[in-house]
Amino acid sequence: MKPSNSLAHAPATRRNREPIFNVLQTYLPDPARVLEIASGTGEHAVYLSSNLSQVVHWQPTDIDPTALSSIEARRQSDHHPKLFPARLLDVTAPTEMPQGDYNTLLAINMIHIAPWQAAEGLMKLAQNLLSNDGVLFLYGPFWQADVSPAESNLAFDASLRQRNPLWGIRHLDEVTHLAKEQGLIRQAVVPMPANNLSVVFRKE
Ligand SMILES: C[S@@+](CC[C@H](N)C(=O)[O-])C[C@H]1O[C@@H](n2cnc3c(N)ncnc32)[C@H](O)[C@@H]1O
Asked: Which residue has a Cα nearest atom 24 of ligand 1?
């Protein structure tokens, strides 16, 4: 994310937003009340909340105040009736957990760029917050037991670990196990461009 004034831009969002939109169109509840974790620049929040017809309410959040400024600047730059003001949320801090009537939790490119505790916090949040049949959507690179790692993901993983030894691409089986412990069943794994996956969990 490169800040320019308060409006930050992450180049990957332009490339991945359409494929993500296509998967969400299939798996989102209708109507969808979405809590987005780690919204970053806010580009996905703006694009997806505006274009997904199922969405009636999109709440962007992030741990980083700079990200919140960017999300808010984007939100106010145009008419986004379904997009709510960005809120501070650290998914590892249970005392700050939001309340609300949400049936969708979404985290794009987060669990590998944060310590494993962020994945744990995300699953606990999903268990506490989602209504029955609610959906948790993850997007990013994962290691899969039956798939050889892509060269690009090996290099990306090494660069993440160099930046922070607690970061790194997660094993899909371990994430699925963590989800199951919190009552979330894996519903779909969708291959995405550039060796990423969309992973959809549903609360039982
Ligand atoms: C690579 S960015 C992804 C942003 C956006 N989802 C996207 O795809 O463009 C990772 C984001 O995770 C956020 N993040 C890291 N740790 C977090 C935590 N514990 N709780 C909430 N957000 C966190 C960072 O502030 C950052 O905005």
From this structure: 38
| β-pair type (55-62, 32-37) | parallel
Ligand 1 binding pocket, CB closer than 6 Å = 10, 13, 37-41, 44, 62-64, 67, 89-92, 108-110, 113-114, 118
Q: Identify the sign of the CA torsion 130, 135, 139, 141.
A: positive
The answer to whether residue 171 is domain-embedded is yes
Number of domains in the chain: 1
Whether 4 is in a domain gets the answer no
Query: Residue 53: which domain range?
Result: 11-203
Q: What is the pLDDT along the chain (204 residues), one digit of tens a residue?
A: 444 447 778 888 888 999 999 999 999 999 999 999 999 999 999 999 999 999 999 999 999 999 999 999 999 998 899 999 999 999 998 666 777 899 999 999 999 999 999 999 999 999 999 999 999 999 999 999 999 999 999 999 999 999 999 999 999 999 999 999 999 999 999 999 999 999 999 998
In a domain, 15, yes or no: yes
Count of H helices and E strands in the chain?
Answer: 6, 9
Q: Provide the CATH number for the domain around residue 198.
A: 3.40.50.150
Residue 3 domain-assigned (yes or no):
no
Contact (CB, 8 A) for 123 and 117: no
